[in-house]
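Hey, can you fold this one?
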Amino acid sequence: MKIRFLGGAGEVGRLAVFLKTASNGILLDYGVSFDAQGRPVFPLHIRPRDLTAVFLSHAHLDHSGGLPLLYISSRTPIYSTSLTMELSDLMYTDAIKLSGYYLPYTQEEVRETMASAIPLIYGEPVEIGRDAVLTIYNAGHIPGSAIGVVEVEGWVVVFTGDFNTVDTNLLRGADVYNLPKNPDVIIMEATYASTDHPPREKLERDFIQAVRETLEGGGSVLIPSFALGRAQEILLTLVKHGVDKYPIYIDGLARQINQIIARYPHLLRDPGLYKKALEVAIEVPSAYVRKGALEEHSVIIAPAGMLKGGAALYYFKKMAQNKKNGIFLPSFQAPNTPGFEILSKGYAVVDGTIIKVDARLEWFDFSAHAGRRELEHFIKRFSRDTKIILVHTDPLSASVLIRRLINEGYDNIYLPTAPGEEVRISSLKE
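Sure. Predicted structure:
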């Protein structure tokens, strides 16, 4: 069997991996990244006729955003959870709305993509080709996310997509205990290969304390957040700790995502808390309500998480220069984004205007990815005969983890560093 890395090799984002066997061509994710100008960067092209099946791990665009490109003239089955496909549909529509000028697909291709979906349930094996079976398990990353176990023509391959083994308020950690102990290959994300995340209890305690101090001091709190996953986690954290005596506003795409996830309570860690959180949250459907949110002491959760646009940027312009307010960033901030600028410089250039941040400014590591410690423990669960392939990471970060494992006698780690690299599993077993 050949494994070709179409994207996500030596980089974080646009993950795409192609498994080629004698009778099957199985695509694992097909994402998109965006450059500094907001233009999409896709994985290497693959011919739809070479595919017998697609597995989509979750709905974030860096894993799903390229798929409609493959559905212009074909209908290869896409295997994923129902929630992932429903969320992907919404994410595609939003991407077309924001970047349609640059995207080489339209709603017509999105409809074809959705029509090709075959829903999966955690733990239930499904035949996906000739002598090929796929079983998925909860990945703990965002609602509906899945780790895939592909058994194909005598080989066993585990593909993590993005995953998190730590319980959050939204989800239970990844279901790693049901994964095979001795697969031939694990293709796993290693986004945070060199970074440990803080203990969850301390993170929540520090975050809630900062929110309360700001509100009790007469200010409001803006939380720019990723619409899918992070916004829901922040909302649940606030409600869990009783901050809901103050108004909590939800703006942007997060409102629709909240309602979609609510239809899948069985996938959540605490459905009761989620239901309560949605009852507490005040949705912002109009400019009138948005203006009202700014006129009272409140918490406002709004995309985009890096302040590159969206409702969060509107609030930021209004709130940044009031010392009583707080701007708390719970998401990763990429270089060359306003979020990164304000953390590193204390100001951001927005629409050609320099906006200095006088509000209380803090960053909280609410990551939904496994950190270095969790990645290491995950690898050590498996036999040393299993070959580990690290994707969705930059080589510098990955080298930290690889060196630690080499020092402990692990010689089964492989790091592809550029799209287009290809390996044969048979050669890795030698």
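The chain has two domains: 2-195+368-428, 200-363. Let me know if you want another pass with a different chain boundary.
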